[in-house]
Amino acid sequence: MTERQKDRPWLMRTYAGHSTAEASNELYRRNLAKGQTGLSVAFDLPTQTGYDPDHILARGEVGRVGVPVSHLGDMRRLFQDIPLEQMNTSMTINATAMWLLALYQVVAEEQGADIGQLQGTTQNDIVKEYLSRGTHVFPPGPSLRLTTDMIAYTVNHIPKWNPINICSYHLQEAGATPVQEIAYALSTAIAVLDAVFASGQVPEERKGEVVARISFFVNAGVRFVEEMCKMRAFGRLWDTITRERYGIENPKQRRFRYGVQVNSLGLTEAQPENNVQRIVLEMLAVTLSKDARARAVQLPAWNEALGLPRPWDQQWSLRIQQVLAHESDLLEYEDLFAGSHVVEAKVDALVAECRAEIDRIQEMGGAMAAVESGYLKAQLVSSHAERRARIESGEEKIIGVNCFESTEPNPLTADLDTAVQTVDPAVEARVVRALADWRATREELADRQGRGEPFHFPRVEQALDLLKEAAAGTENLMEATVECARAGVTTGEWAGALREVFGEFRAPTGVSSAPLAVPAEDGSPLALVREKVAKTAADLGTGKLRLLVGKPGLDGHSNGAEQIAVRARDAGFEVVYQGIRLTPEQIVAAAVAEDVHCVGLSILSGSHAELVPDVLARLARAGAEELPVIVGGIIPSADAAALREAGVAAVFTPKDFGITEIIGRIVDEIRTANGLAPLEVPA
Q: What's the 3-state SS for 403-456?
């Protein structure tokens, strides 16, 4: 057989980071030694939302879902003994992307690197944060300016860097259809490019360089034929937009460049071993077709619906990629689907529908206007509700969840509490102490620079003043941000300075405008639950039962909370839902002020052990200790038992997929808490 020339494999990454910079650095070096070819850094929620570890909203969140990086010292430790000039690093960071890139640049400079050679990506897509992930900080206008300034800076100073990863990934997690994924992501790209070119920071002859550095981060679900067609449609539309709207003639600069993490939404807590074959099928969607192949792939671990994966679990995911790339013959052939009439018909249909939706968004004034009006969020909440309804009815089958549920005992989860990695609760206190040490050391340095003398200021305060001055004006914010990094400014101080100038933003929830997703005909499950709600309200002598849905802490993944809120509304509840990022104090104050009958808390970040008991204690101090509290999220069994012992009425995890049944259970808990007899009406 004639030897074929094999294509180069895609970049292979695992999404990783937890507890401390030192522990994450050790994990990165181990993964690189196992053959990983790029880094993908997960930052914790305080870092992503611009808070220091000692801020009240950071409580219980430090080091949970990523690594805390509070200042230059943390970034040094995170990449110790990793030569950044030789590395391709992806950083999942959005509202604070400029800050993290500045820290990365300064560490690279300290290593002696030529920053012009740095390669990697900052995610930096704020639109999808308003819609699906919730780590936004500033209003849309200032957020777009931060992105614009960063793109202009990297084109001029770090030309190999991808300054933005426009993410359709999180849109699929929020329930988007393939058409919505493509249309919303490309509408975001149009908004970003329009802003960059309108800023005047990039000369006309360098527009192609800007377009060439725009990358995308996508999701691939288990319907791998449709997903592969989606990627071909994405590429075709991007080529058209960049040629027709921006006049980019060079086909290399118009190339659709994307990385992928396959679907985490479809990972199941029930029979989690099935997640392995799901991950493989989803990976095939973005690797089989050479003409639409991902440039970088990171796979979740089989147990991510249970908790934080261990190093061994991440190794398993890496090996899946390596077997496909190095043992199979996939990389030896041209595109396998070229000329397929089935594929072409599907791609044509997707392209046509996406063009229509992009045009609709442009008529509204573009992606930013569609965010501020609530249109995009309402569409996603509606799509997600329809998907959940299909799962509950059995129309959309999920093996081990709503069909083929019988199973042999699973040796992988025989000891469920050791099947995932846990973060030592003492880590947070150590990180907070280290932050205090950093500030004290930094102050000593400032003293030696002439603190207190006329017209001399501590370097930190001076850097922050210059940042605020730049933010209030029109100059590029990246230079001032780099100076803040060099001065020892903290993440919370950088974001706090910009909050003073830009303000903050609470995104629309999309709940009130979401349509009815589940039919409520006579005898249907929802109709029966409505009976329970109405009967219980009458028994309590109130017009409507009132449910408060709360998101304590910094966890912005609000999809589950929104679906509970929508279904409770449809079942006859009056729902109080104020969105994400609330303190326990705010949640309890709202529960008392609104005189609710139940408090529902949604936490997916692992901070439940800290925040839920705080809510219970505050309710007791407010004289509302009898108010039932229910909790939903990714909660290990031992933690669920501890929460129930502490007084939580019910705990729901991803295996509890029947939302109507959950609403029925909430009514039961309200009746129990109020001394009412159980109802015979089935839920």
A: ECCCCCCCHHHCCHHHCCECCCCHHHHHHHHHHHHHHHHHHHHHHHCCCCCCCC
Overall pTM > 0.85 = yes
Closest alpha carbon to 23 in 80, 105, 84, 61: 80
Residues 549, 646, 638, 427, CA torsion sign:
positive
**Residue 664 confidence (pLDDT) above 90:** yes
Taking the C-alpha atoms of residue 258 and residue 167, their distance in angstroms, rounded to an integer, is 9
Q: Tell me the C-alpha distance between 13 and 123, whole Å.
A: 15
Q: Which residue type occupies 417? A: D
**What mean pLDDT, rounded, does the chain reach?**
92
DSSP state of 490: -
Exactly one of 136, 170, 207, 608 is catalytic; name it. 170
* For residue 9, pLDDT beyond 70: yes
State the catalytic residue, choosing from 18, 71, 207, 557.
Answer: 557
Beta strand pairing call for 11-13 and 15-16: unpaired
Q: Could you report the per-residue pLDDT of 277-299, keeping only the tens digit for each?
A: 999 999 999 999 999 999 999 99
Distances in Å between the Cα of 19 and the Cα atoms of 57, 60, 434, 538, 594 are 17, 12, 13, 49, 37
Q: Which bin fits 81, alpha (ψ -120 to 50), beta or left (φ > 0)?
A: left
pLDDT one-digit tens code per residue, 381-417: 899 888 988 988 899 999 999 999 999 999 998 887 7
What letter does residue 328 receive in the DSSP assignment? S
Asked if residue 453 has pLDDT above 60, the reply is no
- Give 142-174 as a DSSP string: HHHHHHHHHHHHHHHH-TTEE-EEEESHHHHHT
170 an active-site residue? yes
Task: List Cα–Cα distances, 231 to 110, 236, 508, in angstroms.
Answer: 40, 9, 29
331 has pLDDT over 90: yes
- From the candidates 51, 130, 153, 169, give the one annotated as an active-site residue: 169
> What is the Cα–Cα distance from 17 to 27, expressed in whole angstroms?
8
551 is catalytic: yes
229: which residues sit within 8 A by CB, 6+ positions away? 343, 346, 347, 350
Give yes or no for residue 455 having a pLDDT over 50: no
557 catalytic? Reply is: yes
CB 280 within 8 A of CB 328: no
Catalytic, 555? Answer: yes
Residues 6+ apart with CB under 8 A from 115: 105, 108, 109, 157, 158
Beta bridge mates, 582: 552
Q: Is 570 a known active-site residue? A: no
Query: Catalytic pick from 54, 74, 149, 555?
Result: 555
What is the CA angle 626-630-635, rounded to 5? 140
Contact 548, 594 (CB under 8 A): yes
* Beta bridge partners of residue 67, listed in sequence order: 43
CB 56 within 8 A of CB 2: no
Please say whether the beta carbons of 487 and 460 come within 8 A. yes
375 catalytic? Reply is: no
The whole-angstrom separation of Cα 476 and Cα 152 is 8
Tokens 């029966």, residue?
528
Q: Which residue among the candidates 15, 104, 130, 153 is catalytic per the annotation?
A: 15
* Mean pLDDT of the region 137-166: 95
Q: SS3 helix, strand, coil % of the chain, rounded to 5?
A: 50, 10, 40
Q: Is the pLDDT of residue 142 over 80?
A: yes
Rounded Cα–Cα distance for residues 601 and 633 (Å) = 9
Measured between alpha carbons, how far is residue 387 from residues 382, 398, 568 in Å?
9, 12, 17
